[in-house]
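Researcher: For the record, we're logging two predictions in this thread. I'll number them. Prediction 1 follows.
Model: Prediction 1, sequence and structure:
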Amino acid sequence: MTNEIRIDKLPPQMRRIIAAIGIRATELLLIERGGTRIMRPRTHAASQAQAELMGSIALSEGLWAAFPGRGYIDLPMTKKLDAQRRNARILELRGRRSAGDIAYEYRLTTAYVRAIWSENANI
């Protein structure tokens, strides 16, 4: 699942979070809270709640260690991860289905499907 993600193609904020807590924990966090602001926990109860959201205290602490001195983190949405996965599936269909059929299935234009193919021609 995560092998189709090119971390170097993601926005800097997302790369920073992935470096701190890993791709899987990042995905789970962004699915749950992407597009929102999380605040640095100030109480034990808040730390526990955030750790529960992220899966462990260590992950929560690791995330905050990557953002020293910050009282909050604006979490990105999962759109970039979702688009990379979609594009990987589109590349797998190349040569087996027409660009028009793929465009219809993914609600894209035929030109956009062809652009994905040509952008990744050497992969």
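Researcher: Logged. Prediction 2.
Model: Prediction 2, sequence and structure:
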Amino acid sequence: MAGLAQTPTPPDEFIGLKWGISNDEAKQIMKAKGAGYVQRGSGENHLIFSGATAAGLAVDYWDLYFGGGKFQRGKVGFKDEYDIDGLFKQVKKILTEKYGTREKETFKGDPSADWHLTNLGSKDGITIHLYVHSKNRQKHLKLEYINDALAKQFPDAPEEKAGQDDKL
């Protein structure tokens, strides 16, 4: 039908990592991407990697979370850039072109943008959170994808600890 906007389909992956894959599968994919495994802080339900790229941008670290042995949430911290606000706008533009208008956006303080993409007839979907994290006058850009259904089904994935955004 002409004139009707098509609702974007929720992604079935987080930057090349399919939802629901195992810890071992994720390690193989990340190794192929050229990311280095970080032993310290990693465990059965939480893997940390450093390096490689996402959407053509240099990544400082990757946080991958598992519940019930299945990948359900991923986050990247992009390498520090001099113009963090410009980087935020660049990544936001990429996500907006792919997934449409943001559900929520904040400009007060550190900027953030959120998308929630659902499959037809379902409340569950994928939540995407892009945000700038500030600490000690330094800003860092973070991008997180959460598979809502897997997070509800397997709530044993570790919660982030205070200060976890500051590692590496």
